[in-house]
Design a protein that fits this description.
Number of strands: 0
Distance between the termini: 69 Å
Mean pLDDT: 84
Radius of gyration: 23 Å
Structural class: mainly alpha
Shape: rod-shaped
Number of domains: 1
Strand content: under 5%
Length: 71
């Protein structure tokens, strides 16, 4: 049971058990927290990609502007 919980969430799992939570509920809460962290990490990665794309689009628009007025 506790082997299913990652090392990072082992402390959360143990704290919930020590607080009197049911073992299965503690396991589920630990897994939900782990899923949440994974989703936040994915969102951060996508935002970084969007920021890079934003700069690429901006550079492209500036290039088109320069070409249309100066070349």
């Amino acid at each position: 049971m506790a082997a299913e919980v990652s090392k990072i969430n082992m402390k959360l799992h143990k704290a919930l058990i020590d607080a009197g939570a049911d073992s299965q509920l503690a396991l589920e809460a630990s897994q939900v927290e782990e899923d949440f962290v994974a989703e936040v990490t994915e969102i951060k990665t996508r935002l970084q990609l969007m920021e890079r794309l934003q700069w690429a689009i901006t550079a492209g628009v500036i290039g088109i502007f320069i070409k249309s007025f100066f070349i």
